[in-house]
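User: tokens in, sequence out, please.
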């Protein structure tokens, strides 16, 4: 009878082992999934923004290179004007400048940046076309070379410098924006990890509460009831809701103590009759 009661309803709910495994597995799954999401998000943002930052840095270097090449050429022409010596007239490496300008175009990603590069190329073209008349102006007796240099050539150079400075400022702003996006992407990528840690801790506390309320406390009460029965013979009457193995154990212990109590009563009655 007791064993029949002990085994009743055993299949109604999952066993304690299965429920504990499910709870711990859920925590592990949440932590693992959020960790994977964090890693993938961080790598995606890192690769994307790193590429943009590298492109910005390359654009800055190329833009500065174009500015340096043109400034050096302009200063060399000024030296010719000051010395009045055409023999020191420099030769401009147009092929190198064109290659640098093409690389700059390729490194700029934004449509606005591309338009600025086009403006730089146009203003440089105007400066170069004007500078090509330098020999003719220098050798012409009717033209003051200094006045032509400062009145005609320098405005073209100033326009080039203005356009390239605007481009540089735009690239620097874009670099700052991309750097800020990188920082924001980093924090955004760790949010799933933070959330998962918080969710994991919450689930752990809930699991501990579930274990304490559903298993540890009843086991202590069952143990206390058994000790009280052994010490004083008090009837084991602890009861709690449930239909799992622990409830079956409690029912079995209760039935066994009742049967033992009844057996002792009968033995005592038989002895009294003797």
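Assistant: Sequence out:
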């Amino acid at each position: 009878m007791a064993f029949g009661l002990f085994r009743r309803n055993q299949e109604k709910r999952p066993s304690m082992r299965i429920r504990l495994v499910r709870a711990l597995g859920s925590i592990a799954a949440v932590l693992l999934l959020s960790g994977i999401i964090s890693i993938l998000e961080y790598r995606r943002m890192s690769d994307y923004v790193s590429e943009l930052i590298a492109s910005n840095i390359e654009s800055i270097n190329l833009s500065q290179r174009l500015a340096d090449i043109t400034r050096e050429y302009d200063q060399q022409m000024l030296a010719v004007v000051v010395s009045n010596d055409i023999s020191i007239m420099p030769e401009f490496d147009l092929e190198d400048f064109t290659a640098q300008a093409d690389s700059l175009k390729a490194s700029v990603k934004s449509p606005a940046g591309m338009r600025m590069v086009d403006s730089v190329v146009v203003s440089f073209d105007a400066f170069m076309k004007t500078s090509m008349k330098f020999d003719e102006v220098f050798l012409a007796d009717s033209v003051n070379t200094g006045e032509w240099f400062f009145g005609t050539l320098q405005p073209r150079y100033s326009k080039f410098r203005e356009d390239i400075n605007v481009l540089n400022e735009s690239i620097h702003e874009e670099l700052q924006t991309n750097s800020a996006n990188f920082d924001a992407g980093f924090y955004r990528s760790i949010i799933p990890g933070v959330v998962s840690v918080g969710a994991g801790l919450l689930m752990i506390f809930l699991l501990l509460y579930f274990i304490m309320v559903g298993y540890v406390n009843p086991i202590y009460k069952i143990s206390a009831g058994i000790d009280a029965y052994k010490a004083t013979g008090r009837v084991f009457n602890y009861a709690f809701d449930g239909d799992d193995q622990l409830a079956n154990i409690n029912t079995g212990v209760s039935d066994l103590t009742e049967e033992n109590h009844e057996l002792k009563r009968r033995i005592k009655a038989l002895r009294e009759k003797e």
